[in-house]
Amino acid sequence: MSTSTFTFGDHFRSILAISLFFLILLFFTPLILLLLLLTLGRASNFIVEHVAPLMMQPVLWTSGIHFDVQHHDGPITCPAVFIINHSSTLDVLTLLALGLPRIRFVAKWEFQYNPLFFLLGRLTGQIFIQRRQSDKAIKQLKKTYGRIKRNQLSVMMAPEGSRKHPGIIGPFKKGPFRMALDLGYPIVPIYFEGSRELSKGGSLITKSGTVTAHIHEAIDVSNWTLENLDGHITEIRSRYLEWAGVGEDVA
Q1: Which of 6, 38, 182, 200 would bridge 10 by S-S if both were Cys, CB 3.0 to 4.6 A apart?
Q2: Residue 184 phi, psi dihedral angles, 5° rounding
Q3: Do the beta carbons of residue 239 and residue 200 sit within 8 Å?
């Protein structure tokens, strides 16, 4: 389905969904803050695993999006570094709707400019990085290793870095793979099918339709080294190209 032409209905549903998203944030934020204070922060996992998906359900429904999850390898492997393809603003909704156990999201630094995202993100232990500076981003990630290992947390990252990139699957940055290598965590690839077709790039307008999260088999990194890291990254990106239905880079 092409995203080149949006109907009046698409615009109407999307505007309603965007408004509902921020209304839900405004309503839930004080409740989440109270829960975190009462539990001294121990409710963070409950919020990410159960409250966030609950918040996203009415937004997806209003958008006309049916969200489906398919597991291709039995139970979810945790802790792990989860990676996704990132090409749509819908990814924010579907990531939160997944409700993965003990997950923390690596997000761009600019998200903190929104006071609600700043409060919820910081208090639930999300990770913000300055992704335009690779060396600085890796240093910021390394500072979180102790907390991640100590609490047996999983991490979610987008190797493409940004939803605005050339091709169907953009170039992969090293951050998620270096993190998996350093932590000794397996990598679990998740491929979002349908999000690009419904809402490409930075558009807040979306068509109605189905988005499916394909959670694939965990990838063992125990034999990875810094010397062979690039080869493994290329191989994993080739899987995403195959799942996207292209054998090579296509803009």
Answers
A1: 6
A2: 75, 25
A3: no
pLDDT digits (tens, 9 = 90+) for 50-106: 999 999 999 999 999 999 999 998 888 899 999 999 888 888 899 999 999 999 988
- Exposed, middle or buried: residue 49 (CB in 10 Å: 0-12, 13-18, 19+)? middle
Residue 166 CB burial class (10 angstroms; 0-12, 13-18, ≥19):
exposed
Residue 249 has pLDDT above 70, yes or no: no
Kindly give the pairing relationship between strand 154-157 and strand 81-84: parallel
- Tell me, what amino acid is at 100? L
Whose structure tokens read 């921020």? 22
pLDDT tens readout for residues 11-40: 999 999 999 999 999 999 999 999 999 998
Instruction: Please give the single-letter amino acid code of residue 46.
Output: F
In CATH terms, the fold of domain 8-243 is Glycerol-3-phosphate (1)-acyltransferase (3.40.1130)
Within 8 A by CB and 6+ apart from 216, the residues are 72, 73, 188, 189, 190, 191, 239
As a whole number of Å, the end-to-end CA separation of the chain is 16
Cis check for the bond before 101: say yes or no (omega within 30 of 0): no
